[in-house]
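Project outcomes to date are best conveyed with an example. Our students and postdoctoral researchers have been running inverse folding experiments weekly, and each run begins with a structure described purely in tokens. The record below, which covers 305 residues, was selected by the lab manager from last quarter's runs and is presented without edits.
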């Protein structure tokens, strides 16, 4: 008898619901099933596969190593199956279901995405959107992430990387800091005069970003040796606003503070360093309608062509 039948398909549906919900009870709520019904469906699937998919305790449910491997292998297959079924039903263009977006920098979500997200959801009433703050893109397919948004040049991978915008990188300080320590006349003075600099850790390398200054084709790198290293833009911004030190920040996030005089741009004669924002998504022959709709929304939002 074939290993794939209607019960197997039901078992797969229950399996993914348990993974998404993190518990049998939560999966039951999603599927409108009783908890014993969920347990029986998983037991039948495990028996059919000859694998133990979950480690169960009285309080927690977690994927086994075999379960994680099975989830990673089956996720893209089911995604392709969903596309085929949608196409056969004449609804390949329908934007519906759940869209999971990994945000590798919460700054973009706070400044651009959150104020406009109602517009996107109003356009697509059958879509559920889940926004997840992440440190790395990871394996989007195996983790069930449809797309990710991140600042910085992406590393080479199988993911499609589409540039959304570029924002200027500014070197700034609060007036309180400049009153105490003076304003550096040149980028080199940051190091030569012992200024306090706030370094930001590159999540890809684990090392602080180098401080660079661009003017046309000219490039200047200045060592900072900051005693404070952060990996969160909000922490860096507030430490800078409080007058602790000098920071390099994207103009996208600090225009209001510059306009109100709470931050001062130190080197406007070095105006040409840029930092890009990308959307990353798995390469597929037929991009799901929900993913394409969100990518189009991001392009519209960022004014990209």
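After processing, the design step wrote out the following sequence:
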């Amino acid at each position: 008898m074939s290993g794939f039948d209607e019960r197997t398909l039901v078992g797969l549906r229950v399996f993914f619901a348990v993974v998404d919900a993190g518990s049998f009870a939560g999966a039951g709520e999603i599927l409108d099933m009783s908890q014993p019904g969920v347990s029986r469906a998983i037991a039948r699937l495990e028996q059919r596969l000859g694998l133990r998919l979950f480690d169960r305790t009285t309080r927690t449910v977690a994927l086994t190593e075999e379960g994680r491997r099975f989830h990673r292998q089956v996720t893209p297959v089911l995604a392709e199956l969903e596309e085929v079924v949608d196409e056969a039903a004449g609804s390949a263009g329908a934007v519906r279901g759940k869209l999971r977006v990994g945000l590798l920098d919460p700054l973009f979500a706070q400044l651009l995405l959150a104020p406009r997200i109602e517009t996107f959801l109003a356009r697509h009433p059958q879509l559920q959107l889940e926004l997840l703050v992440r440190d790395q893109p990871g394996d989007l397919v195996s983790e069930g992430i449809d797309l990710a948004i991140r600042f910085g040049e992406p590393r080479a991978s199988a993911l499609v990387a589409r540039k959304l915008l570029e924002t200027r990188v500014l070197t700034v300080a609060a007036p309180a800091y400049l009153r105490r320590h003076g304003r550096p006349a040149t980028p080199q003075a940051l190091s030569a005069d012992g200024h306090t600099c706030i370094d930001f850790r590159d999540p890809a390398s684990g090392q602080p970003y180098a401080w660079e200054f661009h003017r046309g084709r000219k490039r200047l790198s200045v060592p900072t040796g900051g005693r404070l290293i952060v990996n969160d833009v909000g922490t860096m911004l507030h430490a800078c606003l409080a007058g602790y030190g000098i920071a390099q920040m994207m103009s996208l996030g600090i225009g209001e503070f510059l306009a109100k005089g709470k931050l001062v741009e130190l080197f406007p004669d070095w105006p040409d360093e840029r930092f890009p924002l990308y959307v990353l998504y798995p390469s597929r022959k037929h991009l799901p309608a929900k993913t394409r709709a969100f990518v189009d929304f991001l392009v519209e939002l960022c004014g990209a062509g």
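The mean pLDDT is 86. The longest helix spans residues 65-88. The training component of this project remains on track.
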